[in-house]
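cron nightly-structures :: item 1 of 1
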Amino acid sequence: MPSKSGCKEEDKIVKTALFSYAESKEYFAYICRADFMPGSGDFEDEDAIANDKECSCFEIRLENIPGAKDCLASAGFAESLEQAIRKVESLAGFVKWL
């Protein structure tokens, strides 16, 4: 069952970041442990990229800016925590890690 962060209870939240939208609305991003990384699904990609895989990885989840705190969207996956951190820090509106 998803938690407030959008991560399933069995998936641990590793880091939480604070974001600002137009300097008037704050929202959160979460890096969660995951055990599944979706592939691109594109038949023109190599199998390693195109196919889903079961692995230890990290998903970035973004809080819904307009309001509903339990409505989150995936902002992608990363194979390592360091890669996930870099992705979050490169997103527009990043303020700081909590």
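cron nightly-structures :: done
The radius of gyration is 14 Å.
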